[in-house]
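User: Hi! I'm working on a homework problem where we have to compare a predicted structure to a textbook description. Could you give me the structure for the chain below?
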Amino acid sequence: MKSKLQVNALLRIVPYLCLAFLWGCSNIMNNHPHNAVPLEAGKRQILFGFTTSSKVYQLHDYAPAAADSAVKRQEKLRLNGHMPLGGAIGLGKGFAISGQLANFVGPGFRVKTTYGYMSDVPSLNNYEAVGFYSKASLHKSLPLGHDVFLAAFPAYGIGKGVERLGQYARLRFNYKSVELPLTLSKQIKFSNGMQVVLSGTGRTACDWINSDLLIITPLDMHFEPTFYYNQPDIQAFRNAIMGHLDFRSKKHFFSIQLGNEHVKLKSAESWEPIVYVGWGIYFE
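Assistant: Happy to help. Predicted structure tokens:
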């Protein structure tokens, strides 16, 4: 009976998974979808939502200078967001493990000149923008008394794809990251089984990106000349602070998160908003 209910719950989120594969160009996810209240041993949850992302790939200077100029004078045709799917499993004694996945494909799908640009993923050779991200984390939650909890969420992430920088520029990248969010949560219980969880999170992260750049020269021909440039490795530091509000019942929850993130590279820095809206299901 339980397995049938789980299958039905998964079927309900299939349409949203389809949308996740069609979301426009994106960068690095900057949400933190968990609070510090521990998951009981054996309890599982599935999370899904929309989150903003940080424009790390667009901040640095491209090499050589002529390529940098060509990219930065192009009209920027991208959205910055993800629709990630995640899950967590309680291990007991305040421990849990979780994972998060996000893909993007779009927005124009085909361009004549990028054959082989993702040669190690042959079925995706002709996409203008496609990316894959995944992140795994270990949770440890400590009770502080009066339904207050403190938790750490060390995580490791990887990614790979082609980012659309403008109408005639693409960046092929490999990405890896380590991060450490710390979350303080206050749980407020109601007699009908409903709960509200108020949380604050501080997070530090370090990202490493290696990439190459494709510049397309638009001409009125049957083909368009392309130029490839290997890029210096990028190291980015991201520090964020955010507040979240979770509404929970025995089987479902809804989350809202707002914050700000400071992104610093060797050549540039910026402040990026954090907006996350998510929902999920609990399983025993």
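For your comparison, note the following. Residues 1-7, 13-24, 107-126 have pLDDT under 50 and may be disordered. Helices lie at 2-20, 65-72. Good luck with the assignment!
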